[in-house]
Amino acid sequence: MLGHSVGELAAAHVAGALCLPDAAMLVAARGRLMQALPAGGAMFAVQAREDEVAPMLGHDVSIAAVNGPASVVISGAHDAVSAIADRLRGQGRRVHRLAVSHAFHSALMEPMIAEFTAVAAELSVGLPTIPVISNVTGQLVADDFASADYWARHIRAVVRFGDSVRSAHCAGASRFIEVGPGGGLTSLIEASLADAQIVSVPTLRKDRPEPVSVMTAAAQGFVSGMGLDWASVFSGYRPKRVELPTYAFQHQKFWLAPAPSVSDPTAAGQIGASDGGAELLASSGFAARLAGRSADEQLAAAIEVVCEHAAAVLGRDGAAGLDAGQAFADSGFNSLSAVELRNRLTAVTAVTLPATAIFDHPTPTELAQYLITQIDGHGSSAAAAANPAERIDALTDLFLQACDAGRDADGWKMVALASNTRERMSSPVRNNVSKNVALLADGISDVVVICIPTLTVLSDQREYRDIANAMTGRHSVYSLTLPGFDSSDALPQNADMIVETVSNAIIDVVGGSCRFVLSGYSSGGVLAYALCSHLSVKHQRNPLGVALIDTYLPSQIANPSMNEGFSPNDTGKGLSREVIRVARMLNRLTATRLTAAATYAAIFQAWEPGRSMAPVLNIVAKDRIATVENLREERINRWRTAAAEAAYSVAEVPGDHFGMMSTSSEAIATEIHDWISGLVRGPHP
């Protein structure tokens, strides 16, 4: 459980830490003492990060709350707070003055803290029987939760709601139910976990009757997997099934829209041989609806989709009454309904929209235009969906010609030279790195699995899709994208930049206390191993261990893109050609991906593993590939030597290097799960 500000007192009562009379007395004392303070303060909600606001503060102004990645509340003396708000407004940030009587969570509260502490000291406060996450720390409550000093500090401290939400998610929470008079926290939760697969539901909404809101919340929770006692839900009623439609001549949809798949369409049987195995992630839905149409027709179709879902969010029977040129705010949208519309459109279009999309593109027409550009920008435009081959660029075409002619080395030389023309990172990415992280599976274990993509043209979060599916219910599984593999990214200059950037993304996921293991398939294991040491030494975040999935050392594989002279041996050429064959089939060969793969290969070509202080699990494929068969035992022993000071274990699963991630996903998931269970239990006496 978690609450926001004074809501944490309600959470403490429900969780068993406070009896109802004591909770009521604390709330009443808090309100009475605050109201007795002199008026004159102000509070503003601003669109900014905490590190952007902090340098502007003085003694008269405090950060009252950090509600999300770009949602901060400032509080303090009226003139000083207003000056900062005006400054941020001048930068184009959204700024909203809160309707409050006093400047809560600021220095102006300090005169009442001593008296409140005395009241709290007279009450019986215990530890919760249901886990509670503290607003003060953003982590699970500690023993001081039962002290008067904690509740006194709670008055003045920053409300770290965003951190609290992320901690809850890291601990396994995937469904959030807001119990209160509105849905303000629901939109904050959505913003804090924008890239995660969660359900966030308010029980009451200001724009809907209470019975409708509560039943809608129950339904949303139920379809997301939450158990409900339906006998209690319908107590006093006699529910029965009804036939739909109720009136055949009234055009109204009742069927459920299919959820978009984030999996490979080939695996789902949605792509036939004529599709050539290309990934048509969005083209089977929204993009396909636009295929073959003129620009005007595409816009009209996109507007229809936006208006249809906007009407559903507003509770209207159809989109006929919505003006595509009218602002969403003028149609009745608030922050909560805006998030609900964002979620619907993300589901139906397979385009991940930011939480602010409806505010950034304030009319249905503008939002529809943005959706079309996002489809285009992700390589899934209507034209591309109609003919995936048209997406091949000149560099890729020349590279494929070289490979087809048996001149792999020349092709990689050309790609390496081309990579020098791309922009380079000047420093590791530290902000907004979590946008590159995806939650692939939810589980009940408090140990999270972080998967590192390969360093090849196949590098993608979805490489771990099948393993994540097999992990569902056991462990939460995250994967991420590496810097440089997206056309909007700059390329890293060295291994330190890669490792630090990815470490920042991992820390964004696991926070300060969540336990986790790292895992990497093939060349991804090299980076996972490097990250394990880096996280421990530089960030004092110690992974429980690292699981390598059929990982060869760079020096073993003289891959064309890993060799300075580009004169590969048969081993490297065989593996490289198989990677290119698969990437070609999946339509993942682009100039961006090729140049990124060449850059990573050059950076890691001389990499050797250092000593590991964390346990290592080495999962190897049972079926051997002819070109690398002679390297199998050498590889196992070299990893064993590197892990000499830590626990090292080897597990064998069916399949070969290229097929094991799909055909043996259950076996791999089980090996990792059993290994983690052993790490958590510790050695037997």
Automatic annotation (TrEMBL):
Matching SUPFAM superfamilies: ACP-like (SSF47336), alpha/beta-Hydrolases (SSF53474), FabD/lysophospholipase-like (SSF52151), Probable ACP-binding domain of malonyl-CoA ACP transacylase (SSF55048)
GO molecular function, one term: fatty acid synthase activity
Keywords, in A-Z order: Acyltransferase, Fatty acid metabolism, Lipid metabolism, Phosphopantetheine, Phosphoprotein, Transferase
InterPro entries hit by this protein: AB_hydrolase_fold, Ac_transferase_dom_sf, ACP-like_sf, Acyl_transferase_dom, Acyl_Trfase/lysoPLipase, Malonyl_transacylase_ACP-bd, PKS_NRPS_Biosynth_Enz, PKS_PP-bd
Protein name: Membrane bound polyketide synthase pks6
Pathway, per record: Lipid metabolism
Segments forming domain Carrier: 300-375
Keyword Lipid metabolism assigned: yes
GO biological process, one term: fatty acid biosynthetic process
EC numbers on record: 2.3.1.41
Superkingdom, taxonomy of origin: Bacteria
